[in-house]
Design a protein that fits this description.
This protein is mainly β and 193 residues long. Helix content is 11%, strand content 47%. The protein has one domain: Jelly Rolls (Sandwich), CATH 2.60.120. The protein has one helix at 2-23; strands at residues 34-38, 47-50, 55-61, 71-78, 82-92, 99-107, 112-118, 124-130, 134-142, 147-148, 167-174, 178-190. The chain is globular.
Length: 193
């Protein structure tokens, strides 16, 4: 009887240890020279925008995450335009950084995601790629790959190139007329190569 009790206690302790070990998500491998600017443990600094005939919704997603406690889920139904963005309260000095880093959970849809930087004075620079993968994928996009948008710029913005000396914001937008949900996690800048 005593031995059976000790055996049950041992199983309970081992089970509890295994349960604790399994419930802790392993920390994702991130570049050593990454300066994280957003980990999405909350999404208060991000807002959605969309044309009247389109919809874009953002939520903090604690189930789907790459690193940390949560990611940002962006659910969209785009018939014209829409996206999610963050306007920085204090302008960011990203120069002399090399690249933008973020992690995206794709859906193999082939839809195009546009990533846009709002540089000093509101000038917009963007890059885009198809989301033709499933699951989490890390992206390191050199700043030289961001080109000045020639399809739209706000009125009276400078045309002085991507200086990265006073970055005002960052946004993610589906370019295609489409619907779905993508998750974004762990945005940062790579400093040095």
């Amino acid at each position: 009887m005593k031995l059976k009790y000790h055996y049950l206690c041992l199983i309970s302790i081992l089970s509890l240890g295994l349960l604790t070990a399994c419930s802790k998500a392993p920390k994702a491998d991130l570049p050593a020279n990454l300066q994280i600017i957003e980990d999405f443990d909350a999404t208060e600094s991000w807002t959605s925008f969309a044309a009247p005939n389109s919809s874009m919704k953002i939520t903090t997603d604690e189930k789907e995450k790459y690193n940390g406690n949560s990611s940002m889920a962006m659910s969209f139904d785009i018939k014209d335009w829409g996206g999610v963005g963050s306007s920085f309260k204090d302008k960011k000095q990203w120069n002399p950084s090399d690249s933008l880093f973020f992690v995206l959970k794709g859906d193999s849809s082939g839809k195009t995601l546009m990533v846009e930087i709002t540089d000093n004075g509101g000038e917009r620079f963007a890059t885009a790629f198809p989301v033709n993968f499933t699951g989490w994928k890390a992206f390191t996009i050199p700043f030289k790959d961001f080109k000045r948008r020639d399809d739209w710029q706000p009125d009276n913005v400078p045309n002085d190139g991507l200086t990265l000396t006073a970055v005002e914001g960052l946004s993610f937008s589906p370019k295609d007329k489409s619907n779905g949900t993508w998750n974004v996690d762990t945005i940062g800048i790579i400093q040095g190569k």
